Amino acid sequence: MTGGQRGEPELVGQDGVGVPDALQRLWTPHRLAYVQGENKADGDQPHGCPFCRLVGMDDEQALILARGERVYAVLNLYPYNPGHLMAVPYRHVADYTELTAEETVELAEFTQRAMTVVRAVSGAHGFNIGMNQGVIAGAGIAAHLHQHVVPRWGGDANFMPVVGHTKVLPQLLGQTRELLAGAWRES
């Protein structure tokens, strides 16, 4: 590696590979863990499930925002947008139809409260809310049901995700957790 113009790195390789260009790089190494399957559930076994492991951890360490009787709210470790959280039943169930009536009600209440809290903290203009049922439907952790609450803002689908396949998150997850957990307690 030799220095290029204006201190830019210049990698010399076959066929000019590594020649400096005018593009800036925004590195998102935290996404590699998701791509490689880190923290995925081990089949149907609760002991291998990250959602089951979270409940035994400290809220701050686990990024848990609030705990209910049957459901808890936790930040997504690999968020689509700032404030992306999930409502998760404590019970290890894979399918929405397996929830009890009480779990279904509390899951809905946590989703409503999450929307209220995220709006108060961030001024979200809208939300994507949903769950992927099964691996074939896109569930990253299919063995443990979870409902996503993804805040949206006008113009949040800018050039970064479209061209750069990258989301820009303006704060660390711990900071987001602190803001949302505080607002959750006050709401």
Report what the structure shows.
The protein starts with a strand and ends with a helix. Helix 4 (101-122) packs across helix 6. It has a single domain (29-186), classed as 2-Layer Sandwich (HIT family, subunit A). The protein is built from six helices and seven strands, in the order E-E-H-H-H-E-E-E-H-E-E-H-H. It has helices at 30-35, 50-54, 59-62, 101-122, 159-163, 173-186, and strands at residues 2-3, 9-10, 64-67, 71-75, 85-89, 126-130, 147-152. Helices cover 30% and strands 16% of the residues. The model is unreliable at 1-13 (pLDDT under 50). With 187 residues, it is α+β, with helices and mostly antiparallel strands. It has a five-stranded antiparallel sheet with strand order 3-4-5-7-6. Strands 1-2 form a two-stranded antiparallel sheet.
What is the strand tally? 7
Please, how many domains? 1
Helix-strand sequence: EEHHHEEEHEEHH
Structural class: alpha+beta
Q: What's the helical proportion of residues?
A: 25-40%
CATH superfamily, by name, is HIT-like
Largest sheet descriptor: 5 strands, antiparallel
Q: Helical region count?
A: 6
- Gyration radius, to the nearest Å? 20 Å
CATH architect. name: 2-Layer Sandwich
What quaternary form is this?
Answer: single chain
Strand fraction: 15-25%
Distance between the termini: 55 Å
CATH C-level class: Alpha Beta
Q: Which runs of at least 5 residues are low in confidence (pLDDT < 50)?
A: 1-13
Descriptive keywords:
single chain; 187 residues; alpha+beta; HIT family, subunit A; five-stranded antiparallel beta sheet; two-stranded antiparallel sheet; 6 helices; 7 strands; 30% helix; disordered N terminus
